Amino acid sequence: MSADKFDKELSEPCQKSKQQAEAPIVDLISPTEPINTSRSLWHMLALLIIGGAASFCIMAIITYFSEPAVHGVSEQYKQHSVRVVKIDEIKPEVIVLLPTHKVMPEYPKSALYSRKSGKVKLQYRISYSGKVIDVSGMNRHSDRALELSAKKALSLWRYPEAAGGDKFLEIEFEFTLEQ
Question: What is the pTM of this model?
Answer without folding.
Answer: 0.46
